[in-house]
Amino acid sequence: MEFVLLGFSDIPNLRWILFGIFSLLYLTILMCNSIIILITIMDPILQTPMYFFLSNFSFLEICYVTVTIPRMLMDLCTQKGNISFLACAAQMCFVLMLGGTECLLLTVMAYDRYVAICNPLHYSVVMSHKFCTQLVTASWILTAPVVIGQTWQIFSLPFCGSNKINQFFCDIPPVLKLACGDTFVNEIAVYVVAVVFVMVPFMLIVVSYGKIISSILKLSSAKGRTKAFSTCSSHLIVVVLFYGTAGITYLQPKPNLSEGMGKLISLFYTILIPTLNPIIYTLRNKDIMLALRKLLTKLLP
Predict the structure, then answer these.
(1) Contact call for residues 65 and 271 (beta carbons, < 8 A)
(2) What is the value of pTM for the model shown?
(3) Strands across the sheet containing 164-165
(4) pLDDT for the residue 215
């Protein structure tokens, strides 16, 4: 009726250090993303499609880390790690759903940059507020039925052996290892869903950036090229980091990673990359830095 998340139980001497580090990272993610949401709402200069997508992305990051980190912090404190069958299924469902939404939203953001740079004269017409809202809504909704079906399929398997999950959250590869039935169909289903929600969006982003780079190189002004590259570079860094780690985890019909390496990669895409994302976007964006200074001036006269 329950599983046991082993988490970092193999290094008990470091649990309070890990608790401190992960607590600090979690608070950083909450604070930085909340500031981005706040300034994109308050500052009139940031009332554009690009920042509308960025504020949604920041909200998504807050939801994404909240599904895993608080539970992990509690397990570090109690050293128990017990999680009910239903809670494990719910956590897996939300992690996959939010992860899939992130893939789609990153693709939408790439399309926004493509239209802005390759078709600047039609940008305001194509990227209307209504269309932007529809793109964001689709990103949030499309993954839900697929992920719910896949989670139900995985947790319908018989679990008759060990109930210990060597991970700090309920993820597909370690849970499938505990199933005592034939998991071949499930593994193929995971691979197919990963191709649809990870590989296809990634290829669309690659095509978009191929056209973007081609258009930028055609610009006669060196200043124009620099500005165009700077608006895209932050998004490109985030795409490479997220898709790289997510692809390694899910784009394998049969997980071949060692449990330690799988746990390390999971730390990257569930905690470290969400910590870096707001820093990457703010430090490389003059408009956000300017809006942040304005906000600080209002708060600290």
Answers:
(1) yes
(2) 0.91
(3) 82-84, 2-5, 164-165
(4) 87
Cβ within 8 Å of residue 248, ≥6 positions away: 257, 265
Over residues 160-197, the pLDDT tens digits come to: 888 999 999 999 988 998 998 888 898 889 889 988 99
Write down the pLDDT at residue 148: 96
- Residue 50: per-residue pLDDT: 92
The answer to whether the CB of 63 falls within 8 A of the CB of 125 is: no
| Distance separating alpha carbons of residues 165 and 176, to the nearest angstrom | 10
Instruction: Give the C-alpha separation, 271 to 27, whole Å.
Output: 11
- Give the Cα separation of 236 and 226 in Å (integer): 15
From CA 169, how far away is CA 66, in angstroms rounded? 12
Predicted pLDDT at 154: 94
Kindly give the parts of the chain with pLDDT less than 70.
231, 251-259, 283-284, 301
Q: Rounded to the nearest 5°, which phi and psi values hold at 81?
A: 80, 5
Annotate the chain with three-state secondary structure. Answer: CEEEECCCCCCHHHHHHHHHHHHHHHHHHHHHHHHHHHHHHHCHHHCCHHHHHHHHHHHHHHHHHHHHHHHHHHHHHHCCCEEEHHHHHHHHHHHHHHHHHHHHHHHHHHHHHHHHHHCHHHHHHHCCHHHHHHHHHHHHHCHHHHHHHHHHHHHCCCCCCCCEECCCCCCHHHHHHHCCCCCHHHHHHHHHHHHHHHHHHHHHHHHHHHHHHHHHHCCCCHHHHHHHHHHHHHHHHHHHHHHHHHHHHHCCCCCCCCHHHHHHHHHHHHHHHHHHHHHHHHHCCHHHHHHHHHHHHHHCC
Tokens in use for 112? 């926004």
Q: For tokens 């060990």, what's the residue?
A: 162
pLDDT at res. 114: 93
Res 61: pLDDT: 95
